[in-house]
Model the fold of this input.
Amino acid sequence: MEKPLTIGPYQLHQELGRGKHTIVYRATQVTLGRTVAIKVLRQRSPDALKKFQAEVRLSAQLNHPGVRRIHDAGQTPDGYPYVVMEYVEHSLRDVLRERQAQRQPFTREEVVRLLQPITAALDNIHAQGLVHLDIKPENILVFADGHAVLADFGSVRRRDETTGEGTPPYTSPEQAAGDRPVGPWSDVYSLGVLLYEMLTGSVPFQGESDIILLRQHLQDAPAPLRERNPHLDRALERVVLSALNKAPHLRPAGAGVLLHEVQERHSTPLEIAVATVQERPHLALIAAGALVLMILLALFIGGVLRLPSFTAATASPTSQAPPTPQAAKPSATPAPPLEATAIPTLTPTRALNPTSTPAPKPPTATPVSGTPTPACVPEPPTLRAPVGSVVVTITKIEFRWEGTLCPHQTYAVRLRNTSNTDPKCAAKSLVSPPLTDSPWVKELSGSCYGDWQWEVVVKQGEEIITQSETGYFNFHL
Done:
C-alpha cells in the first residue's frame, strides 16, 4: 500500500470530491488525532487564487452555528493554498438518495428541523449584503446527529451584482439570465427548489442539458407538488411554489421567512372540503342526504356555520317556536332540561339570568333546505400598494388591496419587518384592527426602517379563511 501523502501535520486519506479549481480530502490532524476535511487549490491563476482566499476569509468571519467551521489555513510545500475545515459525515445529497431509494419524501417537520440552521445562516449572510448563490444538497452537510451546516462559499457575490454562476438544477432565473441583479431573493428561489426536492423526491425541472434547464427556470412553471406527492398539504404546496415565482419581489422576503411559512401555513378544513369537491366531481353522484351532511360538517368544522345554541331554560327546541314574532307566555311548568348526552357538543352562548325566565325567541336563521346553497368562499385579496420594490420615504403608509368579503367576514393587514437588526423591529409584527374595506393607513416608527413584508387576510371571527400573496416594500428615511 502506498504511503498516504501529508500536508504539514495533516495525513491525507481519501478524496471526497473536486470542483473546477479545488479538490477536497478527508485527513487526520496527527497532533490532535481528529478527522478533518482539507480543500486544496489545484491551480494558481490570479483569479482562482483571489476567489479561494475570499472564500476562506468569509467562511472564517461568519462564525455561525449554521456554517461549516474553519480550523486552519496554509500552503502546501509546492505553494498551493489550502484550508482545513471540520469533517462532516454526509451531505444532504446522501440523505436524499437514501430517501428517494425508499420512496420516502421528507415531512414538513423534518424539513423545518433540518433547514432551520441553514436558513438562519443565510439570513446572517444576507444581512451583510452578500448572496450565497449555490444552495444545493451537496453544499448542505449533515452530521450524524442530524444537525446541518452550510458549506462552499466560492460563488458568493454582493447583492445587486450580476452573474451567471450557479448549479443549473438549483439556479435562480436571475442567474440563468446572467444579466439581472442577484440578491437574497435568488437564494430563496434555490431554497425553494431544494424544498420541492425534499418534499416530492425530485427537482421541479429535469432538462436534458444545462441550457434546457436554464430556459426552464426562466420560462416554465413547475408542476404542482401534489402531482408528485398527493399527501402534501395544499397550503404548503402554495408556499413552496411562491418561492419559485419568476418575479423576485413575489417570493418570500427571506430564507427565514420562507421556512417560517413552511412551518405555519396549513389548509383549513373548509379549503380541503371545497378543493375535494372540485377535484372529484363524481362526488355529486352521492346521495343528496349524505352530501348535505358532508358539506355541513366541513363548514361547521371550518367555523363558517354555527349551530343554534340551547339553554336549560328554553321551553322547547327552536323548531317548535311560535310562528309569530310575538313573545309567548312563559309556561307555568317549565320543560325539563335537555339531557347532557343528547347533544354533547352544544354549549350556551349567553349566560342565564337566574332571576328571570326568558321568553323563547323566534328563529332568526334561515332553515337549511334539502339542496343547500354553496358556502360563500371569498377569493384571496389582490394587493395593490405598496407592492414590489417600492421605496417608502414617509412614515404614514397607505395599504391598498382589492377583494370581496362574504357576510360576517373582515380583513386584517399583517406587517413584518424582515431586515432591521434593531430588536424592536426584527421581531416587529403589526396587525390592523378588523377592516371591511381598503385602504388602511399606518404610521411606522422612524427607527423601524428596512424591508417590510405585508399581506391581507380574510377572517371570520378569529379564523383565517384565505389570504393574499405577500407584498414587499422598503421603508427608508
Observations:
- The domain at 6-86 is CATH 3.30.200.20 (Phosphorylase Kinase; domain 1).
